[in-house]
Amino acid sequence: MSLFDLTGRVAVITGSSRGIGKAIAELFAESGAKVVISSRKAPACEAVAAEINARFPDAAVSIPASISSKEELAGLVAETRARLGRIDILVCNAASNPYNGPMSGISDEQFNKILQNNILANHWLIQMVLPEMVERRDGAIVIISSVGGLKGQPTLGAYGISKAADMQLARNLAVEYGQHNVRVNCIAPGLIKTDFASALWQDPAFLERATSVSQLKRIGLPEEVAGAALLLASPAGGFITGQTIVIDGGAMA
């Protein structure tokens, strides 16, 4: 298990009060990391931190922040350093999708929100943590993208555009910062059973279509994405950078 040991590491995980982010935080804590639970609502963050600490004492802290605010993200980074001393791992998991429909119907406000929260916010946060990673010559950054960024789709076009951009963000940063031993990768989940995607998997027709093209004939679970995040954040993934790992039950195959 030493290849997957995160003892002594500090991980900031956005959108970690539920779903994929929460599963990642739980697995990282189980693997020895100190984890920062962060999302918009403080009570939700505090509840998850308490749940993790009940299993792994002093493994989690709650620092709420909205990804739409550069100032709040700066506060997240500053408070993490003040309370835990450093940031070794960053998981950019939080995202927004305020619109479901054809591109012809999306408003400028909705499109801008998707681009800002799903791309620009990741850029902001990564730029805030990179200097200390470069100085230590050690760091791992994981961006949660989506298979929506790998194919066209009739109703989630803007979301897919933002997720494709996240993959390119990871590639660019991997090229820029590999010389400093900072690794940057993406995970592209397919349909996962989370609250964020509930409008999709709770639709019987959509669920049938999704499972019919999955080679495993089911949708995924948050902990199955968390396993890939642990790989990319741990010594086991020490020679992986600039990549996108697809977790979709074989649908893209």
The portion of residues assigned to helices is: 40-55%
Radius of gyration, taken over Cα atoms and rounded to an integer in Å: 17 Å
Strand order of the largest sheet: 3-2-1-4-5-6-7
CATH architecture: 3-Layer(aba) Sandwich
Detail the poorly predicted runs. Answer: none
Biggest beta-sheet profile: 7 strands, parallel
State the fourth-level CATH superfamily.
Answer: NAD(P)-binding Rossmann-like Domain
CATH topology: the name is Rossmann fold
Annotation field: number of helices? 8
What is the C-level CATH assignment?
A: Alpha Beta
Query: In total, how many domains does the architecture comprise?
Result: 1
Report what the structure shows.
There is one protein chain. The chain has 253 residues and is an alpha/beta fold. It has one domain: Rossmann fold (3-Layer(aba) Sandwich), CATH 3.40.50. Helices cover 46% and strands 14% of the residues. The chain contains 8 helices and 7 strands, in the order E-H-E-H-E-H-E-H-E-H-E-H-H-H-E. It has helices spanning 19-30, 42-55, 70-84, 108-136, 157-177, 198-201, 204-213, 222-233; strands at residues 10-14, 34-38, 60-62, 89-92, 139-144, 182-189, 244-247. A 7-stranded parallel β-sheet has the order 3-2-1-4-5-6-7, with helices on both faces. The model has no long low-confidence stretch (mean pLDDT 95).
